[in-house]
Every structure is written in structure tokens, then in C-alpha cells.
């Protein structure tokens, strides 16, 4: 089930429907277990935010408002890369549900899940190579490197109460924003009309990606497991200290103790969340996301203030913030 509510899909609905149809073909595998594992997370649906960003960007930069075959393929490749990263993330985070359904490793085992994630990365690389655009290959390949870098940075800062906001932002870029930023840049590189604008759209993708991650981390604190489709408070349980907690550290000294003991007791995570809610830290984290959204909106407006498709790119920005409400 694809949850497009609130997302600007009207102008790209045909391409999005084709993308959903093509994804199953693109992940086909000879081994039935591998295919079943790789397919599982696609069954859960999702919002398809990354393809929606790419398809709307492609229309925005096109003189005749068309999306090329290569740009459509890029949207599919990006969603496969994102899905592969989720399969691996769920293993690392020991997350048993995703989008309300059981994760790949909980249905099969860690070994099958790792292989399924690797298979998806391999498939995306094969289709990427077939775009026959070296600049795009270099740009998208950087994403997979950044994923690994982000996981390492998150791992080395696990339960580290000295983590700075800059370190949190850097990790968020590697784990989330890099994919959107590089995909937006690659979309422009695949257009013969707008090559000189690739840096601007890279920054657009970077800022909405960072805002997305900040809001995602807030939702992990304020939402229920049912609303999230995965266990609430999972970030803290896994030692992932996010913006709201970092803002709270100097206001609630007991947080240091809870972090040092790695939230090992049953009520530790709930106690930490309650401390955060007693401060203005969630509001400060949202303000941080708003700053990134404002920067992204300014980029779109400077590119072409009268372009109707710019409204869709701006709507994506507001959608990211409204996930908070």
C-alpha cells in the first residue's frame, strides 16, 4: 500500500505507478528465497518520497516538462538503494517490524537478510551502470559509501553523551541526506538542459534530507509504535542519540546516567523521553529542521520563481515538516 497522502504526486502519478510496477521486475532473482526476502520490504509499501522528489525535480528542470527514460530509471534505482539500506539497518538496529510488517531478518534470518540487502545493492549498481553516464555513476556510487560511513559514525558514537550537534548532523547526512542530495544532482546531470544547476539541486536534496531525518528522530520520541510501524524509542535503545536528546543534555543531568548505563532498565527510555518533553528541546529540534526547509525553499525559488513545478518541490518541503503534526 502506497501512502501518498499529502505528497505532490498528481503531476507524476503515471510515472510513479510505472515505477511501482517496474520495481518487482528489477529485483527478480533466480533463487526463490533471495527474491522473497528482497521483495518483502517492497510489499510493505511506503511513501516513495525519494522517487517523488526525483520525478518532480526532473519535471521542474525540463523545458517541455517531460521526464526522460533515464530519469525514471534513476528514480527506481534510488528506491532500490534506499530499500537495501533499510534491510541492513533493521539488522543493525535489531528492529523486528518496519512499516507495520515483520522485517526480512525476523522472517528469515540475519544471513539471508544481509544477502538480500547485498543483492539489492548489486541490482541497483547494474541498472546504474546501464545508464551509461559516468558522472551519474560516480554521483550515485558515493551514496553507498556514505551509508557505510554513516553506520560507522553512528556506531562509534553509540551511547556517547559527548556527541555534538555537528556530529549528529554529519551522521544524518551520511545516513539519509546523501541519498536525496546525490539523487537530485544526478537527475540534473541526466538532463541536457540543466547541467549547470546540479550543485543547486544537490543542496536542495541535502537540506530536505537533513530535515527529514531530524523530524524522523522527533517522531521516534513522540509517536507510538503503531503510528511509526516500528518500535518507538528505538533510537535510544540502540544508543543513537538524536537532536532532541542532545539539546536536553545540559538541562537534565540524570540523562548522563541513563546514557552511561545504556538504558538497560525497563523504564529508562521512557524516563529519558519524559525528561526531553519537560524541556523545549523537541521544539528546538523542529526549529533546526525548519531552518533546513527554509534553505531548500529558497533554492527552488531562486531557480525559477514562476515555474509551476516548483510548487511541487516546495510542497515536498512542507510535507516533511507536517509529518511532525
TrEMBL record:
SUPFAM superfamilies: Terpenoid synthases
Superkingdom of the source species: Eukaryota
PROSITE patterns: POLYPRENYL_SYNTHASE_1 (PS00723), POLYPRENYL_SYNTHASE_2 (PS00444)
UniProt KW keywords: Isoprene biosynthesis, Magnesium, Metal-binding, Plastid, Transferase
GO MF annotation, one: metal ion binding
GO biological process: isoprenoid biosynthetic process; quinone biosynthetic process
CDD domains per UniProt: Trans_IPPS_HT (cd00685)
Presence of keyword Chaperone: no
Keyword Cell membrane among UniProt keywords: no
InterPro entries per UniProt: Isoprenoid_synthase_dom_sf (IPR008949), Polyprenyl_synt (IPR000092), Polyprenyl_synt_CS (IPR033749)
Co-factor(s): Mg(2+)
Cited Gene3D superfamilies: Farnesyl Diphosphate Synthase
Pfam name, any one: polyprenyl_synt
PANTHER family registered for this protein in UniProt: ALL TRANS-POLYPRENYL-DIPHOSPHATE SYNTHASE PDSS1, GERANYLGERANYL PYROPHOSPHATE SYNTHASE
Protein family: Belongs to the FPP/GGPP synthase family.
Protein name: Prenyl transferase
Amino acid at each position: 500500500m502506497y501512502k501518498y497522502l499529502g505528497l505532490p504526486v498528481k503531476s507524476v502519478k503515471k510515472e510513479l505507478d510505472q515505477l511501482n510496477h517496474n520495481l518487482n521486475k528489477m529485483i527478480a532473482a533466480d533463487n526463490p528465497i533471495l527474491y522473497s526476502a528482497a521483495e518483502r520490504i517492497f510489499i510493505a509499501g511506503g511513501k516513495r518520497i525519494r522517487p517523488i522528489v526525483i520525478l518532480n525535480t526532473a519535471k521542474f528542470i525540463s523545458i517541455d516538462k517531460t521526464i526522460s527514460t533515464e530519469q525514471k530509471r534513476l528514480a527506481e534505482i534510488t528506491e532500490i538503494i534506499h530499500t537495501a539500506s533499510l534491510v541492513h539497518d533493521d539488522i543493525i538496529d535489531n528492529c523486528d517490524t518496519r512499516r507495520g510488517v515483520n522485517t526480512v531478518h525476523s522472517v528469515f534470518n540475519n544471513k539471508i537478510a544481509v544477502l538480500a540487502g547485498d543483492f539489492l545493492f548489486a541490482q541497483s549498481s547494474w541498472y546504474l551502470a546501464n545508464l551509461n553516464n559516468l558522472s551519474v555513476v560516480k554521483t550515485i556510487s558515493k551514496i553507498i559509501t556514505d551509508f557505510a560511513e554513516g553506520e560507522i559514525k553512528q556506531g562509534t558514537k553509540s551511547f556517547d553523551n559527548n556527541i555534538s550537534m555537528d556530529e549528529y548532523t554529519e551522521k544524518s547526512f551520511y545516513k539519509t541526506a546523501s541519498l536525496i542530495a546525490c539523487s537530485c544532482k544526478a537527475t540534473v546531470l541526466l538532463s541536457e538542459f540543466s547541467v549547470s544547476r546540479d550543485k543547486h539541486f544537490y543542496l536542495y536534496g541535502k537540506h530536505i534530507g537533513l530535515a527529514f531525518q531530524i523530524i524522523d528522530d522527533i517522531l521516534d520520541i513522540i509517536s507510538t509504535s503503531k503510528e511509526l510501524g516500528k518500535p518507538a524509542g528505538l533510537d535510544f535503545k540502540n544508543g543513537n542519540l538524536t537532536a532532541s536528546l542532545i539539546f536536553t543534555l545540559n538541562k537534565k543531568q540524570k540523562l548522563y546516567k541513563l546514557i552511561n548505563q545504556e538504558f538497560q532498565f525497563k523504564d529508562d527510555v521512557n524516563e529519558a523521553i519524559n525528561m526531553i518533553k519537560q524541556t523545549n528541546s523537541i521544539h528546538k529540534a523542529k526549529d533546526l529542521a525548519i531552518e533546513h526547509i527554509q534553505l531548500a525553499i529558497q533554492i527552488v525559488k531562486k531557480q525559477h520563481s514562476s515555474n509551476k513545478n516548483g510548487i511541487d518541490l516546495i510542497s515536498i518541503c512542507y510535507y516533511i515538516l507536517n509529518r511532525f503534526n
